[in-house]
## 1
Amino acid sequence: MSQSVLILGATSAIARASAHAFAARGYRVYCAGRDMEELRRIAADLEIRHGTEVKYGRFDAEATDGHRAFLDGVTEEMGGLDGLLLAFGHLGDQVAARDFSAGAAVIARNFTGAASILGHAADYFESRGRGFIIGISSVAGDRGRQSNYVYGAAKGALSLYLQGLRNRLFPKGVRVITVKPGFVDTAMTFGMPGLFLVASPHYVAERIAGALDKGGDVLYLPWFWRYIMLIIVHIPETVFKRLKL
Amino acid sequence: MATLTTQLCGWGRYPVHTCELERPDRYRDFHPGAVPAIARGRGRSYGDAALNQNGRVLLSERLNRFLAFDRERGVVRAEAGLTLEELLAVAIPRGWFPAVTPGTRYASLGGCVAADVHGKNHHRDGSFGDHVLGLELILADGNRLPCSPQEHPDAFWATIGGMGLTGLIGEVTLRLAPLESAHVVVQHRPARDLEQMFHLLEPSFDDHYTVAWVDCLAAGRDLGRGIAMAGHHAAPDELPSALRAIPLEHRPQRRHSLPFDLPGRVLNPWTVRAFNALYYRRQGGKGRFLAGYESFFYPLDGLLHWNRMYGKRGFLQYQCAIPTAEAFQGIKALLERLAASRRPSFLAVLKRFGPQGRGLLSFPTAGYTLALDLPLRDPGVFALLDELDRTVLVHGGRVYLAKDARLSPAAFRAMYPRYPEWLEIKRALDPEGSFSSSLSRRLAMGEEE
């Protein structure tokens, strides 16, 4: 039977494009998210375009109590899983920094929920001794900035979590890849001022799915963000704190 | 929802209007909202049909999902943002082809419905709307109205060709035509003048697809010189033996891109005349040959951004249809006026239409249609087109709204006699005027007079 991948947060533009990239490579796909009407549309589209088997179901990142049962259900339905793409995320807005309840939701979705499901997935793949976990983090997690540090903190935590997971699972034959997209043309960024070199979801998705055929642990997309962030993280804090970023 | 305020234009790059764009990702967010809006698919209409000066434009490009594909019956249901290119990629390997396709595969299904587009087979198969089995129309209040020739037929036939003004076209169910091969058997026949051209466009020379290219700089004795082109999907026994086992496979068209605006002067009477002479000799002498479906149906899609050819000021496309009885005289008068103007039309296409369809504002009508591209260099071109409008009206014809950027409200009313009937349905479906575009306001669609 062909390989299978679980996509969490499957209704986002990057996730949708990634599902197509995996399906085009022959993967069977399980799309998970909260919006069942959207999932039904996405699943039908994937099946028709790629002729592959697609299933979908409800997954809520914040309902961590149900994560174990959810994963068990998916692995059973798909007859085992070969990989997972964690694509959910929530930008929130600047209010999140001032209003803790809004900030807590950003942290709960981007980090706590991710840590919960990734923990279960790690156990699953570890016990099988193979598989892959791809987590979509963000360049915003590489350095705290006044404009989105709650989101940045949550994504930064996710990056560290994935790094730790990679360290733990490497000897077990499980691949863990951290993806750090820069600006991608999605609903999250549409109409946002001051963006440059915006990548299409298709571009990002092709490289995410393609990363499995190559080496590499941390994938900046597009590639030049590695160097942009290299510069940004090396700006001395005494200078950085004075910048309006 | 996040919005992007930007300068927007159609394929002809004139006019350019300031519009507030929204691009829903989710089907339920494809919703009219409180402020008047118009939907926009892939921006392949030429003028201002998918613009909304200082207003909202709802992009359907991320709502492009296939929802059902019946391989046995050739019926597809998809969201309106799906392009014909995407449809072809799925349909051709399964032995199906759009029953009607316009000259670009980058158009969206929603756009094809809203403009009730036609193809080279209109004389045989009618327009796009004749193959739409049903639509989901999203009304001003957000309700989803299923409509088809059987269900809410008024709403359906007001939406087919209704320029997106009855509601948002959300989902389209389309009947496809069976396809035996991805190749087309083409026959080119040169015509030395308009009389011979009309002769070659008569039914006795018809194939599944028939269309003609006209050299519109040819004047006097040569007026109407051109090439009649006929074709049909190749049957397996018409294919060379190497292709017979794999009739639905094809080598994709090489695509080039025009990376920048050509200076406006590159296309002038001399260069176009030279091109036309060469084209007439080369294409006219080709006789019968086998072509890939892409080069036959979508010759211009091979050059991405070909609209840059006309320079940054853009161009006007003028397409009219003239009823059969008056067609020869009318087209002759138009070509004479055009030749005398010495404005080169790089593309001039002539075709015989079949009977008028049921879409209340649909363009095709029994007769002949002529399409011209006119670079926008000076305001004189508007005066010329006003003159052509009068000629078209004298001969009982009409102008195609999907290509228009400058028709007057009075001329529109004279050309579309079913407009009052359409308006009544539009008012019932959209009492608050929630759907409005630059085109609809220019033509005062929504008012009787």
## 2
Amino acid sequence: MMRVLYVDDEPDIREIAEMALELDPQFEVRTAATGIAALELIEEWKPDVALLDVMMPQMDGPTLLARLREDERYADLPVIFVTARAQPSELQTFSTLDAVGVIAKPFDPMTLSEKVRELLE
Amino acid sequence: MLPSRPVTPILRHGLLVLAFFLVPLSLLGVHFLLVDEFDEVGQYRVTAERTVETRNQLAQLLALHLDVETAVRGYTLTGDASFLGPYADAIPRRDAQFARLREGADSERLSQLDRLLALSDEKLAIAAQNVDDVRAGRGDDARQLIASGRGRRTMDAIRSLIAEIDAQEAAALSSLTVSGAASRRDVERSVSLLLVGIAVSLAIASLLIFTSTRQRREALEQVNRLAKRQKAMFDSAVDGMLWLDARGDILRMNPSISRMFGYTEAELVGRNNLVLMHTEYSQAESQAWLATVGTAGENGAGRRQEFTGRRSDGASFETEVAISRVASRLEAEGEPHYVASIRDISHRKRAERMKNEFVSTVSHELRTPLTSIGGSLGLVLGGAAGPLEEKTRRLIGIAHANCERLIRLINDILDIEKIESGRMEFDIRRMQVAPLLRRTEDAMAAFAQKHDVKLTVELPPWPQCIMGDPDRLEQLVTNLVSNAIKHSPAGETVEVVATTHRRFARIEVRDRGSGIPTEFRDRIFGKFAMADASDSRAKGGTGLGLSISREIARHHDGDIGYADREGGGTVFHVDIPLAREQAINVSTEADKSLPLVLHLDDDDDTLVVVASAFAGKAKVVSVGSIPDARSALADGEVAAAIIDLALGEEDGGEFAIELRNSMPRLPLVLFTAFDDTAETSMADRLLIKSRASVDDLVEATVSLIARRRKEAA
């Protein structure tokens, strides 16, 4: 089983993403609503990959990624950004931030898990 | 009597010089004329005096003879000796008179005087005889002598001769008077003329000096007014104005600069303008840059650039600086000066940032609910929530399709907004057409299948390198292909064909649709343009695609167009400029006799340099990867190959061996950074990049081709 953490401040999208990711029987999915909650969950649950929404109040995705990289234990945790600011040049800047990839919102729920697998390869 | 049009300075100076010469010359003339006239008058007086003297003496001479006659007659009649008084000293007196008359006399006058003297002698001789007769008591003889009239005739002759001389003197005097009068009138006229000339000269000179002074005063006033106005303009301009010398040092500034930057004029004048900016440029760089600035209206003039301004307290603010070379005669005096106008654009920047922020926020805020809606509908349709009844499936399908359309619409509107505000970023680089078309083919395959349309892609014989942004061009081509598929009847084929058109790579998208309605043609590239209203619902388009496509093409210095297709349908084409070395090749394409040289190198700059060096000698097919090289060779006309051994992830050496085996007669040149690999031995020539020049490469390749041709012949 692969542990997938999805972090987004929008409850509806968390729910849809959770359902979409769980279409893959190999995925075990948990969600977090804030960066702080995500950090706690990573500490406690130790996911294999984290999908982070870019725009979140208090702590946004890039900040959360930077916090993770500060901790040696999570230096290699694969991170995928999910963003609604899906202009090509913006996508490029995210990929330079030490993330394995970017998924644009709105995503197709039926192929979301496939995309995550592709990016992890 | 002012001149109606301004006297030109040259004319004025000429006239003034003339006047200043004329006046003394005229005065000199007057002087000489008058001196001359005084001389003449003096001579006239001398002559007149002499004439009067002569006439006077003649009268005395006549009186003397009359006295002698009277004395002799009186003595003869009376015998009284006292009558003989005048007779006694007659001869010495007469001689004295003659002596005076002879002074200064001319020859004619002398002969007249001689005659007169002879007559006088005769008269005196007669008188002496008379006196002798009377003394001797021969009174009758004496009376008889008188009565004989000899004495009277002699006296008459004397009188008439004296009258003649007197008349001559009188005539001479009168002619002298007449000629003197005439010459005086001449002198008077000349002097008057000269005086008039002097007066006129002085008048003209005064007039010229007056008008010149007035003009100068007016010009000076005008210059003053202008300077004041310009200073006022300079000082009251809202924009900060700097007057810079060639080094970029501040010569003058206006109060807006003080307001903007917080420096006083005294603090800034004489310092380099870089003190006002946050910049990494050195003063030398800034000066070199300044030298490239032209005057307003020229190319490269009125440079407008954004700088981060630095206030005296160190605070930053955004500025727009327009700078131009001062176009004036000052330049002829030496180094150029520059005027920089600085505008505080922090408000505008803030507004721009707010707008960007707003657009970004809107796109986020709209996409977030759409993600939820689209995601939910997608999951339901995908069966994640259990099986669906057919009717439900159809309704959910409609909702899902429209949700996706809404997302496309938002994306297109954002694109349009970015393009129009100039904020769409284009990452233009060297790229090839083939991968672009393959990506498009892959991306559109499913869409084509859904519409039961076949999609084919036809690539050019060898790789086309263009300058473009791969993502934007994919968006463009995808849009054209998507339109073509949507408007094609089921069972038809949409063809994507890449060709070359002048210095452009042309991508054509051909369909067999119903063609473009005439009334729609002039607004086909407009916003929200659709052939008919039902179109958008039926085809799921936004009506913004072609508008965006054209903007993208134009940002590449290319263009987009369409034409009716023979046999029905439409051909859309997009032209994107070829990369430089390919453009060079195209320009020499007319010369079909040029051999074709394949150049494989992973460094774009090397490709460009080599292709340029071969211009006119060979046509270079520049490729960046082994697969591209293979497809170029498949065309079969290549006369030589130049290969780089180090190709990033690919191995040029292996490819070289493969080439040697498959085409043993093809001249093979290795142009590479290494020389210690085993493969080098099988090449015809090995040139090391650090040692051989590009010209060496050209020469080696061309001579190899020539040799191989000779062998073949």
